[in-house]
Amino acid sequence: MKERDISKDFDYYYEKKNKALFESFHYITTMILVFFTLVNVFSNNYIEAKVDGLMLVYQWLIFILYKKKLNYNLSIILYLTGIGFLVNAVHYISPQNLDSNVIWSPILIILGHFLGGRKVGLFVFISTIIVVISFDYLKSISPGLTSYYFPEKVFVFNMLIISASCLLSFIVGRKINLSELNLVQIIKDKELKNLALNKDTISLLSILTHDFTAPISICQMYLSKYMRANSSTEYSKDLKKIEDNINRMIVILDNVKEISLAKFGIINLKYSEVDLRDCIIKELNFQKKEIFDKSLIVNLEWNKKEEFFILAEEVSLTNAILRTLISNAVRFNKTMGTLEILLKNEKNHVELEIRNTGHQIPEEFFNHIYEIGHSTVLKGEFKEKGMGLGLPLCKEFLNHMGSKIKIINEPNKVAVIVKFLRFAENNNKHVA
């Protein structure tokens, strides 16, 4: 992997970690400021309390602006500079025997460096120096409320301490950054090895599923031919069961291949304008035997005057999504139950809802319904099996299409809601 790629990953990791630290630091600082404000109020130090209160308002203003997309590094600089201003303002009003800049300024510089990096640390160092010099000059012309003024040697000592802390934070920070960068490099090396291993595994799966599917498909073809020629034989029911199981084996092999490709992110879907209503009707016709066998009442609810065009890849939409969702609704419905399919247009989506009056999905299955590693195969009233790899593959294709799926699991009512992207002229060239 190229060095610049690792640096980008490191920058992302570094910024994400430090943003969390900054937010924690803000809440801790807020609690400290509230405490000191209350102490000053009860101690009748009203001027100090007002300064603390104003600082509290200032910090929350910066934090809110940061949440509203103010640049992160600028937020750090303004925030820490504000704290430095507060410390100097309080000690201008009520100075102590030792200037607390000896403690606070190095802390602010180090925080600036670790929260925002070297550039931010340098800006905080410069702003701290400016604030300290400004207040020291202010003390020389107007000693404040207590007529106390720091000797020149104390000021020089403070400047040396602040400069030394800045240099130290840069040296230590660089070593920590290099250590973290090495850690990211190790993680990336492992990821590359895993990707190579996954690629080999997926290639093997593709070959195996193809090689298994070919002879099984030939068996299916000859079996269908034999059944058509000998439909009245006493073995026709048994042969039909064999044919059904062969069909199921082919579906499973196709699902294994497709979901392997999906997990590796190499599905190539060419999206186009697809009539969702038309696809639903075709799929219902495809499954009309299963619907008839269970004597299901099918209710189709949509506005016939409206069009329901979505951005999708039609083959995947039909074979991997609608077939899975409708077949599950049929399999797990009760005999003489109701199957409802609703369509409605929203601003940017077309919402599909498939309801059935079947049994509630057991909780232990429902929690892992999209996970390949958990067994989620259930049986319907006629011992039909479903919800194996179908739903994980369905969700994978929906994710690639920018669509969302939600399952409502209640007693005597199970519903699947899918929000498809509506077709727009500027989207018809989208390829995943």
Written description of the protein model:
- This protein is an alpha+beta fold.
- The chain folds into 2 domains: 3-191, no CATH class; 272-427, Histidine kinase-like ATPase, C-terminal domain (Heat Shock Protein 90, 2-Layer Sandwich).
- The protein has 12 helices and 9 strands.
- A 5-stranded mixed β-sheet has the order 2-4-5-9-8, covered by helices on one side.
- Helix 1 crosses helix 6 (152-229) and helix 10 (314-331) packs antiparallel against helix 12 (390-400).
- The model is unreliable at 1-10, 144-150 and 428-432 (pLDDT under 50).
Short description:
The chain has 432 residues and is of the alpha+beta class. The chain is built from 12 helices and 9 strands. The strands form 3 sheets. It has a 5-stranded mixed beta sheet with strand order 2-4-5-9-8, with helices on one face. The protein has a two-stranded antiparallel sheet with strand order 1-3.
Radius of gyration: 34 Å
Cα shape: elongated
Largest sheet: 5 strands, mixed
Count every beta strand, where a strand is a DSSP E run of 2 or more residues. 9
Which range does the strand content fall in?
A: 5-15%
Enzyme class: transferase
Keywords: Kinase, Membrane, Phosphoprotein, Transferase, Transmembrane, Transmembrane helix, Two-component regulatory system
Domain Histidine kinase: 207-425
Protein name: histidine kinase
Q: How do the helices and strands line up, and which of them pair or pack?
A:
Layout: H1 3-42, H2 46-67, H3 72-93, H4 101-116, H5 118-141, H6 152-229, H7 236-264, E1 272-275, H8 276-286, H9 288-293, E2 297-301, E3 309-312, H10 314-331, E4 338-345, E5 349-356, H11 363-366, E6 378-379, E7 385-386, H12 390-400, E8 404-410, E9 413-421
Parallel strand pairs: 2-4
Antiparallel strand pairs: 1-3, 4-5, 5-9, 6-7, 8-9
Transmembrane segments: 21-43, 73-92, 98-115, 154-173
Keywords: Kinase, Membrane, Phosphoprotein, Transferase, Transmembrane, Transmembrane helix, Two-component regulatory system
InterPro entries: BphY/WalK/GraS-like (IPR050351), HATPase_C_sf (IPR036890), HATPase_dom (IPR003594), His_kinase_dom (IPR005467)
